[in-house]
Structures are given as structure tokens and as C-alpha cells.
């Protein structure tokens, strides 16, 4: 008898509802769940990846250890003992900071990882914490921290109700939205256009989103800060500001016109490649639209002025009256308000409490920028990293100058990876601890419910039982934390341990507590409406909690519940913008005469789903896109191999000539490069591709936040 199971896909931020049919314990179909209140039936090709990962013969199910004779299976007890012994002895000899931690993207899509990750990190007590945040959205956090007082209080574009959407450095038609959980983005875009609205894309590539949008303009990579300053210049120049109901709670209003004064459309056009006329048109349209929202994502965060860009996006929304208003940028009111829970314990973010040892990059929210990880391992001296713990991350492929990190990992005294695959990063581990994953896990998205364009709550029970000896991420993290902490030796320690929820409760129990005491919880809403885990389990499609609602000033975490329109750190950083762009018009230098940018692909998920035949089959996708003019100049033909080099390295890659690229800019997807013979990724190795991060440069960063600047890496092509 076929059975039907409903759950939320945890692979990306879109949180699509899926309907999975099984027969005799085998998946026979995966479809979109039409009754899902958020995704209404939408899924992407990766949804079938749920089956592929579940059934993948290469997926690890038991701890393995690297020995002279290759990888051997060991018991959990043996693995734990060896991990704990090594971490303790290295910390004893070299100090706490000698152990580094890197947490990758799937942690954020994992209930247990989210709940237990911090507790685990505390048991290591290192300042060398790294994560994928600093190759991704760190500038968003910085802007929120500076302006709203909480690094996670993230404004979300209310795409369902807006009349005008300015999309910069994002390709939601492929990515399905990021810091904007918006499954079925294409449909939402069509609905926006059908109701007479307009979507404008600013991107150095005419992306899938740009093709469907109302208008697209090429921009020279890395110059968005200047473009945004010019938009604001016009808006002030033409008296188009209108703060509306926020006027009384926004500080520093007078300083913005001063800051943007010099950035005239005429002066900035040669820098950005967007004409003065277009800038004027876009600024007026945006400010005069009934409702409008500016949204900037990866392409804006991962550039040298990522922080400034995300700040200016917020400023643009605020000064045009498009903030905390339907159709503008709004905050969610989720069933479990992670932002509020962290706020209640004062965990609102931090900057620069300590610096990295080698390059003196600032701490942010307890982490250091990952672009400095390799040098922290390679540079000798006190505080050098001697051991690593990686958790659901593949930084050899996902962080700048992966070649260097690959070398650095190879010389560690000890490394343990909590991961489901033996891949480019985990091959350096001495021990790999593989968790149960995906369809074997219960799931509630703590993070992306908070970033969604509509409020819902959805719980997924597990579909399959993992192998009997399996452990979930949270169990591994908690077991290791307990072993590292040891038995409490003083009454105070004992009391502290007893108070620690994570020592006593399962993820489901914590989830239930958080739901019951949350905004819609059964503690406050008696009768049938109040949420708790039992109620949510009984609603397999999830529950609809309504559209985004205005919530200011209550939600702010700043001192007087005010929005700080121009935080000092951004005012200061504008000097760097002026220095770079006013002094030397930003043109590539003579040796590296092209700009390199990235390209996400619909049938890929960062680096780790290429072992699915279904997602990788067909013609080679790891290609370099290049404008016909640039190809002609270099006498390159369609499909030919070319060598691309940057300051840090070079790769050979097939050329795809397309006028969808801005002249002078080339694009390569990330997450490829599965060519090591000792990795257990049999399908991926048939189409290994090459890694763009063997070209990206660990020295190219947003100096303010420490975030990697992937956008616009200078390269040459031969
Ligand atoms: N050049 C360039 N580089 C980029 C980007 C770019 O656009 N351009 N994008 C950046 C962005 S946005 C991100 S988020 C990062 C991602 O960077 P990472 O997080 O470092 O890399 P992923 O490819 O997501 O690797 C995920 C790892 O988690 C493992 N995994 C999967 N599921 C589970 C699970 O349930 N439990 C555990 N323990 N492990 C699991 C996989 O096997 C894999 O090893 O890459 C960044 N790198
Ligand atoms: N299919 C698929 N979906 C995914 C992922 C995946 O790997 N595959 N990854 C997930 C993750 S971890 C994330 S963080 C999100 C990211 O979600 P998005 O941010 O929507 O994804 P990207 O495709 O990286 O979009 C970045 C865009 O910025 C453009 N760009 C590059 N440089 C510049 C610049 O200097 N200025 C401007 N204006 N644009 C620039 C690029 O051409 C690209 O179109 O996607 C998520 N969804
Ligand atoms: S868009 Fe994301 S959440 Fe939706 S099916 Fe695809 S991978 Fe899963
Ligand atoms: Mo990401």
C-alpha cells in the first residue's frame, strides 16, 4: 500500500512543502504539497535530491577513521574517545584556541544543529570559531546590528504585496530566495507584474530572474555601493523622501543628504556602468511607487563594500517610507521568534571584541572571518590552530583560496568532521562522525520561518528510521560536549549543568516549549488555536499565521527603540568608498583584465549535492560564461578550454560564450571541483568540474565586516 508523507524540504531556504509517496519503504514519488500554506505546491528539481541523498551508497552511516591502510569503520565509542582525547591533549599543550571550529550551511537547515551547536562550541571554549556566515550574509547582520540593535533582526521584502521591487545581486528564480524565504518566486514575480507592479534587476549577468523581470541593468561588479549612493542622491535632490510613520523614531536623518551629496548620477555612471538617466529614472520610480522594496543579496554582501551596501539598502527602504509597511521591507512574526529569544538573553550581536591573530580581522557575533582560517593554521606562533572540528561544511570548496585551505588542513595535528560524506574537506579529517540526516530527522525550521515572506509554522516528522546505531547531529554534538565538559567537579558547576536545557531535553521537547511560550502559543491562546508541538504534528501541511505585520518600534533592540539611520561604523566606511572610487576609476589592472563573479545553478546546492546522478547528468555545467566581445578578443571559441588565473591560482575550464554577461565580466559556478581520488563521491567524480574558489582571493574582503568579496575578483583568461 502506498503511503503519503508530508514534510518541509530542508535543502534550501525556500522551505517548500513536499508530498512524498513511499511503497515498501522506498520513495516512489516526490511532489509539491499543494496544501502547504507557504509554497502552495512549488518545488524545484533538488527536491528529488531528498531521495538521492537518502539512498546514496556513498553516504556514511558509521564513524570512520583514517589509517595507513585507508579508511576503516570504527564504533561510536572508539571514535568519541579518540576525538575527545585529541582535543583535550592539544588544548592542554597549546591552549584553548589551538582548536578551531567551522560550521557550514546545512547546520542552519538542521533543528538539532541549531539547538545544540552553540552548546557544543562552548565546550571547546575557543575564539577560533568560523562559519559559512562570513562567505555569505555577514554584512546583512552587521547592518541590522548597527541600525536595529540586533544582528538577526532582518528586514524581509514583502514581495506578495509590493508594487515595485529592486533586486540587486540576487537570483531568486534559481536560488529560490535567500533572506527572503519565498518558494515559487517565479509565481510571486508574475503576480507582482500582473497587478501592475514592476521588478528591476541590477546584476552583471542577465540572470534567469533578470530575464523574467520588467527591466534589467548591468552593473560593474563591486560598485553597488556607489549606485545606491547615487539613487539616494537623486531622492534627496528631488525631495522625494517620506519617512511616514517612522519619522519620529529614525535618528541621523539630517546626515544622509550630506553623505550622498557628492554621488551625483553623472559622476557615478562611469564607475557603475549605469547611465545617469537610468539612475534618475530608477530613483524616481522607486520613491514614487505606491509601495516599493529594495532587496540586495549574495552579489551585494560578498563584495568589498558589502556592509555599506546592506546598510544603504535599508536606508533606501526607510527614507522612502517603505519600511515596516505592507509592500516594503518588514520583519516577520514567527511562531518561534529566535531573534526575540536571543534578544532576551542579550545575545544581539557584537563586533571587534577580539581580533584574529594573524591579520587582526574583527570578531563578529563570536566568530572570525573564514578567509583568515588558512593563515591561522599555517602561521606558526602562540595561538596557532593545530586541530579543527568541521560540522556540515566543505570550506575547501566554499571559501576563498580553497587551495591554500586544502594545504592548511593537510598539516593539522588532528581534525574531526561531523559530516555525511567523505569529500574535499572531510578527507583531511582523522575521524568522520556521520549523523542521520534528511528524511531520517524530525524538522522544524527555526531560522527560515523567521526570514519568510509570509508567517507559517510547519513541523516535519521523520519518514524513515535511521540505521539502529545512528546518531543525529544534536546527539553527536551533545555527546561530545558532555565528554569534553566532564563530570561537574564543584556544586556551582553541577547547578549550571542542571540548569542547562540542552543537557536534559531533546530537540522536540525544546521545540514544544518554544512553541507553547511563543507569540501564538497555547500558553497565551487557550482553546484550539494555541500552538504546541502536538497541534503542529496534527497539521502535516503546516499552519498559516498570516501576512507580515508592522511591528515597530516594539521589535527594535536599540537603546531608545530608535532606528539608527547612519551608524558611525558605516559613516566611517564611506571614506573607504570615496578613497577607492574617487581616486582611481575602478578598472581592472592590466594583468588581470576581467572581473570574475559566481553563478548558482538550479540543480546544485553549494558543493554537496553533485553526487546525485539526477542533479548532475547532461552536459557539463561547470563552464565559464563570457561575453562574445571578450571571447573574440582572446580568440576563444564556444566550448574551448581556457586557463583562468588570478593572484592566487589558476584553473582550466570550458568556455560558454553568451551575451548574457556584461562585457569585461566572466562567471563560474561554485561548489565544483570533486577531483580527489580518495573521496567517496562516485557520481560527482564522473563530472568533477573545477573550483572557482581556487581563483577567489582570501585577501579580497569587505574590510568592515571581514566577509569574503567574491564579486569581481580580477582574473585573466588565456
Ligand atoms: N565563490 C563562491 N563561493 C561561495 C559562494 C558563492 O556564491 N561563490 N557561496 C557561499 C555560500 S552562500 C555558502 S552558504 C557557502 C556554503 O559553504 P559550506 O557550508 O562550507 O559548504 P556546503 O557545500 O554547503 O557543504 C555542506 C557540507 O555539509 C554536509 N552535510 C549535508 N547535510 C548534512 C547534515 O545533515 N549533517 C551534517 N553534519 N552534515 C551535512 C555535506 O556533506 C557537506 O560536506 O559557500 C559559499 N561559497
Ligand atoms: N539552486 C540553488 N539554490 C540555492 C543555492 C544553490 O547553491 N543552488 N544556495 C543557497 C544559498 S547557501 C544561498 S546564500 C542563496 C543565495 O541566493 P542568491 O543571492 O539569490 O543567489 P546568487 O545566485 O548567488 O545571486 C547572486 C547574484 O549576484 C550577482 N552578482 C555578482 N556580483 C555582483 C555585483 O557586484 N553586483 C550585483 N548587483 N550583482 C552581482 C550574480 O550574477 C548573481 O546573479 O541561494 C540558496 N539557494
Ligand atoms: S526550492 Fe529549496 S526547499 Fe524548495 S524543493 Fe527546492 S531545494 Fe527544496
Ligand atoms: Mo549561503
Automatic annotation (TrEMBL):
Molecular function as annotated in GO: iron-sulfur cluster binding; metal ion binding; molybdopterin cofactor binding; oxidoreductase activity
Keywords: Iron, Iron-sulfur, Metal-binding
UniProt-listed CDD domains: MopB_CT_1
4Fe-4S Mo/W bis-MGD-type domain location: 1-58
InterPro entries reported for this sequence: Asp_de-COase-like_dom_sf (IPR009010), MoPterin_dinucl-bd_dom (IPR006657), Mopterin_OxRdtase (IPR006656), Mopterin_OxRdtase_4Fe-4S_dom (IPR006963), Prok_Mopterin_Oxidored (IPR050612)
Family as reported in the entry's similarity comment: Belongs to the prokaryotic molybdopterin-containing oxidoreductase family.
Name by which UniProt lists this protein: Oxidoreductase, molybdopterin-binding
Lineage of the species this protein comes from: Bacteria, Pseudomonadati, Bacteroidota, Cytophagia, Cytophagales
Amino acid at each position: 500500500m502506498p503511503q503519503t508523507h508530508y514534510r518541509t524540504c530542508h535543502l534550501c531556504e525556500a522551505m517548500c512543502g513536499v508530498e512524498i509517496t513511499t511503497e515498501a519503504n522506498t520513495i516512489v514519488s516526490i511532489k509539491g504539497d499543494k496544501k502547504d500554506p507557504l509554497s502552495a505546491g512549488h518545488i524545484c528539481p533538488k527536491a528529488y535530491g531528498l531521495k538521492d541523498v537518502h539512498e546514496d551508497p556513498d553516504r556514511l552511516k558509521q564513524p570512520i577513521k583514517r589509517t595507513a591502510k585507508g579508511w576503516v569503520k570504527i564504533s561510536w565509542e572508539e571514535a568519541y574517545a579518540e576525538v575527545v582525547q585529541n582535543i583535550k591533549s592539544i588544548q592542554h599543550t597549546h591552549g584553548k584556541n589551538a582548536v578551531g571550529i567551522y560550521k557550514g550551511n546545512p547546520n542552519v537547515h538542521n533543528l538539532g544543529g541549531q539547538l545544540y551547536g552553540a552548546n557544543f562550541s562552548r565546550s571547546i571554549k575557543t575564539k577560533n570559531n568560523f562559519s559559512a556566515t562570513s562567505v555569505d550574509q555577514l554584512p546583512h547582520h552587521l547592518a541590522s546590528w548597527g541600525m536595529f540593535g540586533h544582528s538577526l533582526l532582518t528586514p524581509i521584502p514583502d514581495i506578495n504585496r509590493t508594487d515595485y521591487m529592486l533586486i540587486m545581486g540576487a537570483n531568486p528564480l534559481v536560488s529560490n530566495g535567500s533572506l527572503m524565504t519565498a518558494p515559487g518566486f517565479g509565481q510571486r514575480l508574475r503576480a507582482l507584474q500582473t497587478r501592475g507592479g514592476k521588478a528591476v534587476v541590477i546584476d552583471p549577468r542577465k540572470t534567469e530572474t533578470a530575464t523574467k523581470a520588467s527591466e534589467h541593468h548591468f552593473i560593474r561588479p563591486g560598485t553597488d555601493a556607489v549606485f545606491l549612493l547615487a539613487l539616494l542622491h537623486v531622492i534627496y535632490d528631488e525631495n522625494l523622501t517620506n519617512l511616514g510613520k517612522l519619522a519620529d523614531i529614525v535618528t541621523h536623518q539630517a546626515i544622509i543628504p550630506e553623505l550622498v551629496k557628492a554621488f551625483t548620477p553623472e559622476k557615478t555612471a562611469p564607475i557603475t556602468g549605469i547611465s545617469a538617466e537610468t539612475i534618475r529614472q530608477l530613483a524616481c520610480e522607486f520613491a514614487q511607487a505606491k509601495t516599493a522594496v529594495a532587496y540586495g543579496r549574495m552579489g551585494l554582501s560578498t563584495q568589498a563594500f558589502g556592509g555599506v551596501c546592506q546598510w544603504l539598502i535599508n536606508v533606501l527602504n526607510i527614507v522612502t517610507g517603505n519600511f515596516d509597511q505592507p509592500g516594503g521591507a518588514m520583519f516577520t512574526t514567527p511562531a518561534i521568534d529566535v531573534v526575540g529569544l536571543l534578544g532576551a538573553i542579550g545575545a544581539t550581536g557584537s563586533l571587534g571584541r577580539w581580533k584574529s591573530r594573524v591579520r587582526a580581522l574583527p570578531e563578529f557575533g563570536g566568530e572570525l572571518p573564514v578567509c583568515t582560517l588558512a593563515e591561522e593554521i599555517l602561521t606558526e606562533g602562540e595561538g596557532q590552530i593545530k586541530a579543527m572540528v568541521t560540522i556540515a561544511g566543505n570550506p575547501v570548496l566554499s571559501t576563498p583560496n580553497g587551495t591554500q585551505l586544502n594545504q592548511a588542513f593537510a598539516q593539522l595535528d588532528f581534525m574531526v568532521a561531523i559530516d555525511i560524506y567523505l569529500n574535499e574537506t572531510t578527507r583531511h579529517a582523522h575521524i568522520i562522525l556521520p549523523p542521520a540526516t534528511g528524511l531520517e530527522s524530525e524538522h522544524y525550521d527555526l531560522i527560515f520561518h523567521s526570514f519568510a515572506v509570509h508567517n507559517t509554522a510547519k513541523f516535519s516528522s521523520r519518514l524513515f528510521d535511521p540505521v539502529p546505531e545512528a546518531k543525529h547531529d544534536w546527539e553527536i554534538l551533545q555527546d561530545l560536549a558532555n565528554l569534553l565538559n566532564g563530570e561537574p567537579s564543584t556544586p556551582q558547576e553541577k547547578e549550571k549543568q542542571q540548569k542547562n536545557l540542552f543537557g536534559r531535553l531533546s530537540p522536540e521537547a525544546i521545540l514544544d516549549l518554544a512553541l507553547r511560550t511563543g507569540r501564538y502559543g497555547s500558553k497565551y491562546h487557550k482553546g484550539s488555536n494555541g500552538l504546541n508541538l502536538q497541534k503542529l504534528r496534527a497539521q502535516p501541511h503546516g499552519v498559516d499565521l498570516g501576512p507580515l505585520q508592522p511591528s515597530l518600534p516594539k521589535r527594535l533592540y536599540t537603546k531608545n527603540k530608535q532606528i539608527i539611520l547612519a551608524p558611525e561604523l558605516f559613516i566611517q566606511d564611506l571614506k573607504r568608498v570615496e578613497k577607492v572610487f574617487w581616486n582611481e576609476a575602478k578598472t581592472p589592472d592590466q594583468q588581470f583584465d576581467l572581473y570574475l563573479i559566481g553563478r548558482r545553478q538550479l540543480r546544485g546546492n553549494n558543493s554537496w549535492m553533485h553526487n546525485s546522478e539526477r542533479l548532475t547528468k547532461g552536459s557539463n555545467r561547470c563552464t565559464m560564461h563570457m561575453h562574445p566581445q571578450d571571447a573574440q578578443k582572446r580568440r576563444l571559441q564556444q566550448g574551448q578550454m581556457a586557463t583562468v588565473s588570478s593572484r592566487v591560482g589558476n584553473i582550466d575550464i570550458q568556455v560558454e560564450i553568451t551575451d548574457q554577461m556584461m562585457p569585461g565580466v566572466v562567471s563560474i559556478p561554485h561548489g565544483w571541483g570533486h577531483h580527489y581520488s580518495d573521496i567517496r563521491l562516485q557520481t560527482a567524480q564522473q563530472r568533477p568540474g573545477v573550483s572557482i574558489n581556487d581563483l577567489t582571493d582570501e585577501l579580497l574582503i569587505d574590510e568592515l565586516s571581514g566577509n569574503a568579496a567574491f564579486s569581481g575578483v580580477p582574473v585573466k583568461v588565456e
